[in-house]
């Protein structure tokens, strides 16, 4: 699954910061290892592919967060650019649509143990790398 990076916000902030080498071609994929992409494991990516196929790509939105901003809020490094707070508020607003499950920090586990009925029920709040 291709990640929309750099998106319009990324491009605008890079221009503002004077950055020109943003990279690209970032994908969310199976396997446990990746260099520059988001590896979520084979079982999880199969579930995500099925969810996107069932829901439709046009009705699917990927929100990548530094941590689950619905619980505990954002942690912003002192040296972070001034726009990081704005970005985290935007991400937090997107995640606010999804309830926090009592037993975990994500509404649905992405390890094959649960399958939501539609994409709005799916929250991939963070990725654990081995």
Notes on the protein architecture:
With 130 residues, this protein is mainly alpha-helical. It has one domain (8-121). Helix content is 28%, strand content 3%. The chain has helices at residues 8-17, 42-55, 84-95, and strands at residues 28-29, 38-39. The chain has a two-stranded parallel ribbon. The model is unreliable at 104-130 (pLDDT under 50).
Describe what is shown at a glance:
With 130 residues, the protein is mainly alpha-helical. It is built from three helices and two strands.
- What are the segments in which pLDDT stays under 50 over at least 5 consecutive residues? 104-130
Shape: globular
C-alpha Rg (nearest Å): 15 Å
Number of helices: 3
The percent range for helix content is: 25-40%
For the biggest β-sheet, the strand order reads: 1-2
Write the layout of secondary structure elements.
Blueprint: H1 8-17, E1 28-29, E2 38-39, H2 42-55, H3 84-95
Parallel strand pairs: 1-2
Attribute tags:
two-stranded parallel ribbon, 130 residues
């Amino acid at each position: 699954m291709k990640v929309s990076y750099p998106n319009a916000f990324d491009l605008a902030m890079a221009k503002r910061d004077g950055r020109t080498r943003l990279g690209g071609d970032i994908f969310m994929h199976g396997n446990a290892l990746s260099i520059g992409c988001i590896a979520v494991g084979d079982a999880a990516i199969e579930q995500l592919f099925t969810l996107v196929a069932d829901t439709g790509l046009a009705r699917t939105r990927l929100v990548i967060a530094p941590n689950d901003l619905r619980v505990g809020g954002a942690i912003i490094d002192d040296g972070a650019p001034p726009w990081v707070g704005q970005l985290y508020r935007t991400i937090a607003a997107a995640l606010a649509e999804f309830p926090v499950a009592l037993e975990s920090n994500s509404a649905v586990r992405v390890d094959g143990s649960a399958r939501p009925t539609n994409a709005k029920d799916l929250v991939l709040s963070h990725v654990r790398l081995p």
